[in-house]
Amino acid sequence: MKISPSILAADFSCLYQEISRIEREVDSLHFDIMDGHFVPNITFGPGLVASLRKKVNLLFDIHLMVDNPQEWINPFIDAGADLITVHVETSLHLERLIAIIKEKGPKVGVALNPATSLQGLEYIISEVDVVLAMTVNPGFGSQSLLSSVVPKIRDLREIIRKRKLSLEIEVDGGINQDTAARVIEAGASILVAGTAVFNASDPEKAILRLKNSQKGELGGNKNSTAKNGS
Ligand code: DX5
Ligand code: ZN
Predict the structure, then answer these.
(1) Residues with beta carbon < 5 A to ion ligand 2?
(2) What mean pLDDT is predicted for residues 178-207?
(3) What are the structural domain ranges in the chain?
(4) Which end of the chain is less crowded, N or C, counting CB atoms within 10 A of the terminal residue's CB?
(5) Which one of 3.30.465.10, 3.30.43.10, 3.90.226.10, 3.20.20.70 gives the CATH number of domain 2-215?
(6) Contacts of 126 (CB under 8 A, 6+ apart)
(7) pLDDT band for position 218 (50/70/90)?
């Protein structure tokens, strides 16, 4: 199980120290890039990514929650992106956008908001490395997982199985000890977690518990459901 902590939930006043505390335990670092248009929040840009690139030796997982993502491919590649994920809702020419990212080197992902169906992936899913299923409405950390997305994760895994594809399912938003086992059971292989990691009293331990939340081994309370959960 891969964990990609979202620095959105970290203390920006000591960001490098926060990352250093968990670097040993994770595979990648998730950067939530928000422009205040596609989502009602603004976070950080290529400059912050470039400054951390010099010091942090992890896969940089860039989640573009921006209008006009095509304008941001080069700046984030230059800043050190290893994976760039774009929202299907932000591009009229998704196939071309994916091709541009791939020809420049990084891995490529496509993200779906909770209400967005899998249909839009039909003719490009075989071109991507990751499908990011948003398990909250994008824009803010510390939200509760939307249970309505779990069946979508299951359907996505079925498509991948039937078409014999080898891409990863990444989930993002409200992932913690109580929700991790459910999304893993549905097919997630990369867990983005911000609050559950950086707001934990022991972030390293929080990551290890998420990693061990395999099918059936619930990290948290067996009966718990996500706040919006059924
Ligand atoms: C939403 C963001 C969050 C963040 C992680 O736009 O993408 O999902 O990464 O959020 P929490 O704090 O719920 O793990
Ligand atoms: Zn994200």
Answers:
(1) 32, 63, 172
(2) 98
(3) 2-215
(4) C
(5) 3.20.20.70
(6) 163, 165
(7) very low
Q: Which ligand 1 atom minimizes the distance to the CA of 135?
A: 8
pTM: 0.93
Pocket of ligand 1 (CB under 6 A): 6, 8-9, 30, 32, 63, 65, 136, 138-143, 172-175, 192-196
Nearest ligand by distance to the CA of 210: 1
Q: How far is CA 224 from the centre of its chain?
A: 23
pLDDT band at 203 (very low <50, low <70, confident <90, very high): very high
By annotation, the residues acting in catalysis are 32, 172
Taking only the tens place, the pLDDT of each residue in 117-167 is 999 999 999 999 999 999 999 999 999 999 999 999 999 999 999 999 999
Q: Please name the residues in contact with 107: beta carbons below 8 A apart, sequence gap of 6 or more.
A: 82, 83, 84, 129, 130
Out of 32-36, 113-117, 222-226, least confident range: 222-226
Identify the nearest ligand to the CA of 141 by its number.
1
